[in-house]
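Input.
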Amino acid sequence: MIDFRYHLVSIVAVFLALAIGIVLGSTELQGNALNLLNSTSNSLRSQYAAASSERDAYAAQASAGEQFAQAEEPTLLASLLKGDRIVLITEPGAQDSVISGVKQAAADAGATVTGQISLQPRFNDTSGETQSALSSTNGSAAQAAGVSLSTSGANQQTFYQQQAAQLIASAILTTSASAGAQTSSPANAQTSSQTSLPASAAQALLSSYAQAGFLSVSGQPTVRATLAVVITPQSPPSDGASDPASQVLVTLTQQLAGASAATVVAGGVSGSGTASAMGVLRSSDVSSRVSTIDDADTTFGQITVIQALATQLAGGKAASYGVDGATGIGPTPAPTPSASVSPSSAPAAKSTAKAKTPKGKK
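Output.
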């Protein structure tokens, strides 16, 4: 028969074994664990140092490439768009450095930036109240300008933005430089998005949207341009591809492309990708009419903006350029000033212009 003494000895033995295990774990086994942790830590430190060194090397290469592009930009773009007029349309959140960079590239190419239309967040708002206000503004502006609003191919989500884009395009763009800054068309003439409005009517139209909080105006965009550059937000929209701002960009660029000799969309790498407005545009049917550049936050990308416009003017196809899901880093072959004559001022050039590859860019 097992007595109480046996139970007591068993219990003491169990606790003694636990104590011995604790001691062993905190001495000999602890040393092995620490050695393993130290070895792993040293390995990670080594990998981190190697990655940091590689990152610094890439950064140095990128910096050198940027400096080279800045030095070569005037040569690569000299007179490439001489005499052409460009209007900028910026989305809410557009990067200032991209805007200023594109303006500088346009100047190097001999083009004039007529002005800038800065779309406000309200323009991308598809809520009922804002849509009602936009519809009212569209109706009033169209009636005052004598414009028949188009309803063909409309996306119901962005129906009123399409009409607004049509009207805005008619105020700032023309397909031919021969239309000039002024037109003798009567103010009450029926005008489509492909026909320029008289300057006074164009100014009144833009003012109506500005007063309603849909956009702001700088420069003289009513001195109508033949070329349009849309600059996308610095960051992707919060709701990704389904965000109304992404759908509005498609609608906007479609109207601008129809009213201009060439249109491109430019943005920085951080605001591009499949979930961005540019990603949505690239996957739409409009991408066949509008070139996109996703690295316009670099000098090389800003050069590509101008080259993309020149390529389209010379009869080339629209394409996606850059580093994130693009089909190429730039037009190939790249257009050169000596071989590129703007068809916006000389229509026959479309069938005769041939592009050559300049030194420094392939």
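The chain has two domains: 4-59, 78-352.
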